[in-house]
Write the structure tokens for this entry.
Amino acid sequence: MDELFSFQDRVILITGAGRGIGKAFAEAFHKRGAIVYGTGSRKESADHMNAFGIQGRVADATDPDAMPGLIDEIMQTHGKLDCLINNSGISSDTPASFFKEDEMEKILNTNVKGVFRACQAYFKAHRKKGGVIVNVASVLGLYGFPLASIYSASKGGVIQLTRALAIEWASSGFRLNALCPGFIETDMTARMTGKAEYKSKAEEGIPMKRIGKPEDLVGAALFLASPASSYMTGQVLIVDGGLTAQ
Ligand SMILES: NC(=O)c1ccc[n+]([C@@H]2O[C@H](COP(=O)([O-])OP(=O)(O)OC[C@H]3O[C@@H](n4cnc5c(N)ncnc54)[C@H](OP(=O)(O)O)[C@@H]3O)[C@@H](O)[C@H]2O)c1
């Protein structure tokens, strides 16, 4: 296989890899010969990953000790971690005027602090070797949308975090880029895609006239994780069927 896209024996850690977008990523890297570790917040998620050949671990993004512990385990076992993909995240369609402190805290803790903690743990464990980080943000981190206030703020935070760390850590050989999906059919969007009327309205608004599938993001993730993007850092890659090009 072309060296640019070879993942044979590369060690990759993907958060939220038991379902949805993270699962599609985990399967794609596994299929290409990578040693894939995946996380979830629940034991069932870890068991499910172990069943399809991924090293599944429970590592809650809101637990400050979870990712340092897992990255230590990976370093002790393999002596390296080639790429970290921060994919886990939660959303909400609570109207802004109804948001309560605890829901706001949970989203920001999972989506922003969780990503930061994972990046920091990887950097500390790997600072002499450099590394590659892909942070899954969202087009909602770039553009306004109703009923997405705190989620949008969290994803805008992920994009800015990616840019800032890319600059701070470039001299240590770390590359960080953000991947911004558009509307993708997963559990996260099931409440909308499950209703035919909402689904067709959403599809109508997308230039490619279809909602994306997790597999539609795999090529972009492989690119950002691979040496094919070796001169790219601090950037945002949008994969949305043309939604934000309008
Ligand atoms: N679907 C879309 O349209 C869309 C669009 C733009 C961006 N995104 C982003 O893409 C990423 C994946 O989304 P998805 O659609 O695949 O969502 P999903 O199907 O709801 O999956 C979310 C994943 O995140 C994990 N997760 C949630 N909270 C966690 C926590 N506290 N600790 C560890 N893992 C946790 C879940 O694992 P457990 O089940 O074990 O908790 C699950 O694997 C998210 O960051 C999301 O914001 C999605």
Notes: Residues 3-238 form a domain with the Rossmann fold fold (CATH 3.40.50.720). The beta strands are 11-14, 35-40, 55-58, 83-86, 131-136, 174-181, 236-239.
